[in-house]
Each structure stands twice: as C-alpha cells, then as structure tokens.
Specification:
Length: 325
C-alpha cells in the first residue's frame, strides 16, 4: 500500500517531495519503487518508526506531514507471534506522535484498519467512526493501541492527527500472504487455495488505487482531530471471492482446500464510508470484479516479482501456518 501511495503522490503532484522511511522487514520490497529510485523528489531512508533516531533522520528539520503506513499487518502472523506487532504498531505510532508533538511535522495521518472495531455478524451492520473498539487478534489490538494513542495525543496535547479505518485492500504488489494474492499465486503454481473453515466469513474490499485516492482526499481536505472510515460497501463472502478468482483463472472448485479455521476469526467487516463521501467527496471507482480481474492479470504478468518472494522464509511461514497447525 505504501509503495502504491508513493507512486500515486509523485505522479499526481510533481512538485511534492516524498521521504520513505522503511525498516524493510519481510514484506518490504524496494523493487516496488525501483522506477522512482532516481526521481529527485524521492528519498529512501532505511529505518524503524519505533526508533526516535531513525524518525529524526527521516524528518530532518521538519516535514509537512507524516503518513503512517508502516505496520505489522498480518493477522495470522500476529497469532503465531505477537511481539513485533506491539513494537511497530504501538511504539512506532508513539514515536511518530512524539515527532509531531515536537513540531517536526504539521500533522500525522494514521493509516489504520476496520479490524479495531471487532466484527459484524451480517452484511447489513456497519462500523461507523463512533463504533467502539473491540479488537479480536493481537494484530488488531496493536493497531487499536496505536489509534488510541493518536486520539489521546490529540485530546491531551492537541497533537494534529487524523485517523483512518479502512476495509481490506487488494491490488498489485500485495505480499502473497493475504487471501487474494495467496489464492492467485497458489493457483498460478497449480497449488490449492486454503480456505479457513467453510469460507462463510465476509470481507469488504477496496482496490489499491481507490485507497490512494481516499488518502489523497484526506491529506488535502481532511480535518485535524477527525476520524474517517474508508469503505466501498463491496462485500463478499470468502468462498465467493475464491470462486471469482477460480473463474478468472479458468480453474474449478476442486482447487479449494478447506483448512482449520483461524483462531478468533472475525466473521465480517463492513464499513460505513458516508462521512468520507459526503464531506470530502470521495467515491470508490473500481468495482470488485473489475479490480480482481486487474489484480489477477498483474500477478500473471509479474511472476518474477512473487516467485522471488515465495521462497526461503516465506516457505517456512507457509509450513507453520498451513501444515503444522
Ligand atoms: O480489514 C482490514 C484488514 O484486512 C487489514 O487491517 C489487515 O492488515 C489485513 O491483513 C486484512 O485482514 P484479514 O484477516 O481480513 O485479511 P486476510 O487476507 O488474512 O484474510 C481475509 C479473509 O480470508 C479472512 O476471513 C481469513 C480468510 N483466509 C485468509 C487466508 C490468508 C482464508 O480463508 N485463507 C487464507 O489462507
């Protein structure tokens, strides 16, 4: 998501300067930004948002805005081992907030998730910006911790922050641990798709570019101290999502492998995006079926990108997650 947003900003605003601070953990990949490497408006700094000296190095004398895309994000990994999530998602957010409080940035935009609200039981219920936090996994609890800190800093110190809660992203360059890229790449490798439980759970999906446009709108017109939900109302049961992917790749349902359900698995996420739509005029532009088609084509045309990833440490994780549970 971060690299897609950097592309979006450098293209849409040729006079903006972007500094990318990234620890380059397992999902970080400089290849995603290879074509802007020599852009004079782009600087890369390797470092950790949870270390104040790294944040200071990146912001230097000061910047206009810090947009916090840096996070440990994968629920299953947080169930296997929560520790890294606490450092990046909580201490990392704290460190960025301190930089803003010290005047090193005019505002912080916290990229967060709808998962902090827990789950809904039907597609007709929706999370609003006022919904109570009720996180289920170590991942969503750590994001909730970071978001609580943002809200507390605003209330206590008037540190300028804006918080966003988005539904599930999908699109090009997504690390193949998430449902959609995992399914697509497994099928391209003639492997089965692991579906947790019976696949009855549902998610709400936003195409990468629509999310970039939402953050663009919030960056330019969002109100300090406000919270914005980012959602599309495009909701799909996991099993239906998998069937759409199977169809796009001309595969049949024998490619589905039902596996043990995720512990604490949230049944559904559904976001009410009315505030973002009504106040900032944002609308999603990409329909789920269309975005899925583009995504499948991207993975088909970029085998080198994901084949490199699906080796070494990735295979170790895959074994732990899918074979040894
Ligand atoms: O709601 C936004 C969130 O969406 C983000 O905050 C998270 O960072 C992101 O990881 C995502 O969380 P999910 O748990 O919904 O995403 P994931 O792709 O892991 O799973 C989507 C659904 O598919 C979920 O119900 C679990 C299921 N699933 C997932 C995997 C990886 C399977 O059935 N099989 C799988 O192998």
């Amino acid at each position: 998501m971060g690299s897609n947003f950097i592309h979006h900003i450098l293209t849409a605003y040729p006079n903006y300067k972007v500094i990318n601070l990234d620890k380059l953990t397992y999902a970080g990949n400089l290849e995603n930004l290879k074509n802007v490497e020599n852009n004079p408006n782009y600087t890369f700094v390797k470092g950790d948002i949870a270390k104040s000296e790294d944040v200071e190095k990146a912001v230097g004398e000061g910047v206009d805005v810090i947009i916090n895309y840096a996070a440990e994000t994968h629920v299953d990994r947080s169930i296997l081992d929560p520790k890294a999530f606490l450092f990046t998602d909580i201490i990392g957010t704290y460190t960025l907030l301190e930089a803003v409080r010290a005047g090193k940035a005019k505002k912080l935009i916290q990229i967060s998730t709808d998962e902090v609200f827990g789950m809904v039981r039907s597609m007709n219920e929706e999370f609003t910006e006022q919904s109570r936090f009720d996180p289920s996994s170590p991942y969503s609890a750590s994001k909730a911790g970071g978001d609580h800190l943002c809200a507390a800093y605003w209330r206590t110190y008037q540190t300028p922050v804006i918080i966003t809660h988005s539904c599930n992203f999908y699109g090009p360059n997504q690390y193949p641990e998430k449902l959609i890229p995992l399914a697509v790449t497994n099928l391209l490798e003639e492997k089965k798709v692991p579906v947790y439980g019976k696949g009855e759970q549902f998610r709400e999906w936003i195409f990468t570019e629509d999310h970039c446009r939402a953050i663009d709108a919030i960056l330019h017109n969002g109100q300090i101290g406000e919270v914005y939900n980012i959602g599309t109302r495009q909701r799909s049961k996991n099993i239906d999502t998998i069937k759409l992917i199977l169809k796009l790749l001309s595969k049949d349902e024998s490619q589905i492998e039902y596996v043990k359900d995720r512990a604490g698995h949230d049944f559904g996420y559904a976001v009410n995006p009315d505030k973002l739509m009504n106040e900032l005029g944002w609308q999603p532009q990409v329909k789920f079926e269309e975005g899925l088609k583009q995504t499948v084509n991207w993975y088909k045309n970029n085998e080198n990108w994901w084949k490199k990833i699906k080796s070494g440490d990735y295979l170790e994780y895959y074994k732990k997650q899918y074979k040894e549970r």
